[in-house]
Design the sequence.
């Protein structure tokens, strides 16, 4: 297939090196003054799109479009994707008040609207975001579009309009074949994302970035679920020592373990 257009999802998440804390209101985790970065699985998705373009050539892969749904600061992650090699970016800007309540179904609906506008042949998303670990957006998007899907991909091959995806399962490897257009979600072992070089970071500033709002796309992102409260896990108590096997058996009996 010539003129292949690839849409890649990019999500702004708390950096994986940060120790997450619950906010004072017990409504969510603390995000103020916390380092954020591009979701690692989405980095893998961007890298794979770039590798497909390098492998198949610019005559086959027409362009790579990075898209995110999030607050204004999410543009930082789009610029990272552009610096890695995406051709242009789309930002569906969600207000700071609405973003914490944005759920996978809402994101899938926004992405569906972008797909209908841009007409890509392939959508590649990270299998999950490391903040909510929902692992739902790709599957919901495929359902809304009525497209075939291949989740948790560890290898991707495209030949014309045919797509072959290898994925890891409990018993070994599973190979899925489908036709384009399709939705793919990426697993950890698919590739090792490249670092954005300084010249490419500078070039990324000049690459086009288009903004939309959910209202522009006529998409309702009202949450279907409500978070009642968020609390830290209980502190684990330290273990104890016993002097003999008899003492161990006695303690186990008193604890109801025997």
Sequence:
């Amino acid at each position: 297939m010539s003129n292949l257009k690839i849409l890649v999802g990019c999500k702004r998440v708390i950096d994986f090196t940060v120790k997450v804390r619950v906010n004072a209101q017990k409504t969510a985790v603390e995000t103020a003054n916390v380092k954020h970065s591009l979701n690692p699985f989405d980095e893998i998705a961007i890298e794979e799109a770039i590798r497909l373009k390098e492998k198949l050539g610019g005559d086959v892969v027409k362009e790579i479009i990075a898209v995110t749904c999030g607050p204004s600061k999410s543009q930082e992650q789009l610029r990272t994707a552009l610096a890695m090699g995406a051709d242009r970016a789309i930002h569906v800007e969600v207000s700071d008040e609405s973003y914490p309540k944005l759920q996978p179904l809402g994101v899938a609906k926004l992405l569906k609207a972008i797909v209908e506008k841009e007409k890509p042949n392939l959508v590649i998303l990270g299998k999950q975001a490391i903040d909510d670990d929902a692992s739902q957006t790709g599957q919901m998007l495929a359902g809304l579009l009525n497209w075939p899907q291949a989740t948790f991909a560890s290898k991707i091959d495209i030949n014309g309009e045919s797509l072959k995806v290898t994925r890891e399962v409990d018993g070994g490897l599973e190979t899925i074949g489908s036709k384009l257009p399709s939705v793919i979600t990426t697993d950890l072992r698919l590739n090792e994302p490249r670092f954005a070089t300084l010249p490419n970071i500078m070039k990324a500033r000049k690459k086009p970035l288009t903004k939309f709002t959910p209202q522009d796309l006529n998409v309702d992102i009202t949450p279907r679920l409500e978070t009642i409260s968020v609390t830290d896990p209980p502190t684990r108590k330290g273990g104890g020592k016993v002097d003999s096997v008899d003492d161990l058996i006695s303690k186990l009996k008193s604890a109801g373990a025997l």
Observations:
- The chain has one domain: 4-254.
- Residues 4-254 form a domain with the Rossmann fold fold (CATH 3.40.50.620).
- The chain has six helices and eleven strands.
- The mean pLDDT is 90.
